[in-house]
Design brief:
The chain has four domains: 75 residues, Phosphorylase Kinase, domain 1 (2-Layer Sandwich), CATH 3.30.200; 175 residues, Transferase(Phosphotransferase) domain 1 (Transferase(Phosphotransferase), domain 1); 211 residues, Aspartate Aminotransferase, domain 2; 113 residues, Aspartate Aminotransferase, domain 1 (Alpha-Beta Complex), CATH 3.90.1150.10. A six-stranded mixed β-sheet has the order 10-9-11-12-13-14. Strands 1, 2, 3 and 4 form a four-stranded antiparallel β-sheet that branches. The protein has a four-stranded antiparallel β-sheet with strand order 15-16-19-18. Helix content is 35%, strand content 13%. By secondary structure, the chain is of the alpha/beta class. Helix 20 runs parallel beside helix 22. Its cofactor is pyridoxal 5'-phosphate.
Length: 655
């Protein structure tokens, strides 16, 4: 939310802009000058110039407007500053935007941080408009300003005037409508008193002297909780302290920052209304997200089009039960559908249908799905498990290894007549981004066709542009009999899944035989449609393919003995760490990456999964590569206790 301005005396019609700036348009007029938006020719950055040198030369803070440049023309001194193209007032008025209590807390935190910095440097800021960066330094903000001599003692000596304005901003954010508005001074006071009660002498010393000249109606105070019904007790308490009548008793900016309302600090919400490749933690630290919620946010975090679809539909119809709604429910549905097909179409004897899978799979955590798993973390303590389902051959007891056509063929030869479906991930994600041989999926499909078995492709993680194709199975040129989708089908905004199949398979389940309360609800459908449109409109399939190739090339150029293998497709990739070359684990590397602003996750001890959002830029991607390279170089020289967060993590694990 930044840009820049230029101020000149109001009587001058033509502002003389230094040659390197190109005048674009007049964007406003203040007390002393006109504001003109400019563009710096050789950089193409929108700029503006303002006349407030002294204050800004003394201030350096992330929540205060940044001074870029200073130059003079004749008698005019001009500044080049950040240009703030939006503020909280615009956000509040934009009905298409949705923000929650954490967003309000974040904006309040940033506003108070900037204000506290001003006050600490003896700078008053009377005209608060609620920007995320304090940008307006109009009248008498500095004690050395000659205008201060005309101000009342209370204004000159008290920062409380700023705090009252912050309270009004806080209230307006919660209400999304102006709070305590007034066109005139008297009208403003009437509005304030009608809301907060007409003050007594104890509440506002000196007020009775004022009221000798102006008669105000006696209003009773209305408890704030009656108006701010959704606010928590901490929020109400802070608002009351910000809006105390007596400025000497009003909370200071520093005290406000230490208020219990900010005890659990929210992530700062980026001001740009853009899909993001970054996330923020509760302390405000920014991270490049190379985990991407296991491919749930392919389109970027909080994509505005997807969020808008959810909000628009929420105002119409929210529930009509049908079908399925989350990832693992799609897997369960696929299994049920294959079994039903097996009995109705293939003629498998009742209760004898087999569903095969591969070892090291991950399809979810429901009973049917963990019955197919060989992961002890998923299975221990949850038995007995469902029979005739999983990766083990019922006769030989041998497991079907992923990427082994021989194992699958032998099992189908022995049990083909009773096998209804073969469930497989095109690329195994949780086991370490295991990419099978070329045409593995195609040959599995051919074996299934030979034995009249349905191929069920679990594309919940690999589908929807993640691997450089809309569906990962397209790399092998096939169309699975049943395809399972989830995660990015909603862009991470809402639980949505889907099961795709031809009518011959899908219609084996009749109306009333399968469904759930929230399955197929209008909210999920609206979100899914928007998420698919984003993938198409923003060319995320092509971006994933192109950036993925460049990403792997860059990773393979890293000269580190720790890298054993780089593998993946599109923007679903992994680094396999050679632990024989170091005593450092993939988890320790991920902790170091986190401390340097990049989130990734280890899996199977020595593998680091790398899956950024598909809207990431090439520059951001290469920045991530640099962080990875430097971390791999540095960690071999580090002691365990020097790795940020490692000792704390050991304590949490009970070591």
């Amino acid at each position: 939310m930044s840009e820049k301005l230029s101020i000149q005396p109001p009587e001058d019609e033509e502002l003389q802009i230094e040659s390197k700036y190109t005048k674009e348009k007049k964007i406003g007029e203040g007390t002393y000058a006109k504001l003109v938006q400019t563009e710096i020719g050789f950089q193409g950055i929108e700029l503006s110039a303002v006349r407030e040198v002294k204050v800004l030369r003394e201030l350096r803070h992330p929540n205060i407007i940044e001074l870029i440049d200073i130059y003079s023309h004749q008698t005019n001194l001009q500044l080049v500053l950040e240009y703030l193209d939006s503020d909280l007032e615009m956000i509040i008025k934009d009905e298409s935007l949705v923000f929650v209590s954490a967003d309000i807390k974040s904006w309040m935190l940033m506003t108070l941080r900037g204000l506290e910095h001003c006050h600490r440097n003896w700078i008053l800021h009377l005209g608060k408009d609620g920007q995320l960066k304090i940008a307006d330094f109009g009248l008498a903000r500095d004690f050395s300003d000659p205008h201060v001599k005309n101000m009342s003692p209370q204004v000159v000596t008290s920062y409380a005037v700023d705090i009252w304005a912050v309270g009004c901003i806080f209230a307006e954010l919660m209400l999304r409508t102006p709070y305590l508005p007034g066109e005139t001074d008297i009208g403003q006071l009437e509005t304030i008193f009608s809301a907060l009660g007409t003050p007594t002498e104890d509440e506002w010393p000196g007020f009775t002297e004022l009221s000798n000249n102006v008669r105000f109606q006696k209003y009773a105070r209305t408890p704030l909780k009656q108006l701010f019904t959704a606010a928590g007790n901490d929020a109400i308490d802070l608002l009351e302290k910000l809006l105390v009548y007596d400025p000497n008793k009003r909370i200071t900016a520093r005290e406000a920052l230490n208020h219990s309302y900010f005890r659990n600090k929210p992530r700062p919400t980026p001001p740009e209304n853009l899909p993001r490749a970054y996330v923020w933690d509760p302390e405000g630290n920014k991270y490049m997200d190379f985990l991407c919620a296991y491919s749930a946010v392919n389109q970027g975090h909080c994509h505005p089009k997807i969020v808008k679809a959810l909000c628009d539909q929420a105002q119409k119809l929210t529930l009509s039960s049908r079908a399925f709604y989350n990832d693992v429910f799609a897997v369960e549905t696929g299994i049920k559908l294959a079994r039903k097909w097996g009995y109705l179409k293939k003629g498998i004897p009742e209760n004898m249908a087999i569903i095969l899978s591969c070892t090291n799979n991950f399809h979810g955590r429901t009973m049917a799905v963990i019955s197919m798993s060989n992961d002890s973390d998923s299975r221990t303590g949850f038995g007995p498990f469902m029979p005739r389902i999983g990766s083990t051959c019922p006769v030989t007891g041998r497991s079907i290894q992923f990427n082994s056509l021989k194992d699958l063929e032998e099992t189908l030869e022995k049990h083909g007549p009773q096998v209804a479906g073969f469930l497989v991930e095109p690329i195994q994600g949780e086991s370490g981004i295991n990419v099978p041989d070329n045409n593995y999926l195609k040959k599995c499909y051919e074996l299934c066709k030979k034995h009249n078995v349905l191929l069920i492709a679990d594309e919940i993680q690999t589908g929807l542009a993640r691997t450089g194709k809309m569906l990962c199975q397209e790399h092998d040129g096939i169309k699975a009999d049943i395809t399972l989708l989830g995660k990015a089908l909603s862009g991470g905004v809402y639980p949505v899944s889907a099961v795709l199949a031809d009518k011959e398979v899908m219609l084996c389940i009749k109306p009333g035989e399968h469904g759930s309360t929230y399955g197929g609800n209008p909210l999920g459908c609206a979100v899914a449609i928007a998420a698919l449109e984003v993938i198409k409109e923003e060319n995320l399939v092509e971006r994933s393919a192109t950036l993925g190739e460049k990403f792997r090339q860059a990773l393979r150029k890293i000269d580190s003995p720790l890298i054993q293998t780089v593998r993946g497709r599109g923007l679903l990739n992994a680094l396999v760490i050679d632990e024989t070359k170091s005593n450092k684990t993939a988890w320790q590397i991920c902790l170091l990456l986190k401390s340097r602003g990049l989130l990734a996750k280890p899996t199977h001890q020595n593998i680091i999964r790398l899956a950024p959002t598909l809207n990431i830029t090439e520059e951001e991607l290469m920045e991530g590569v640099k962080i990875i390279e430097n971390s791999l170089y540095d960690i071999v020289k580090m002691k365990d206790e020097d790795i940020p967060g490692y000792l704390e993590d050991l304590k949490l694990q009970g070591h």
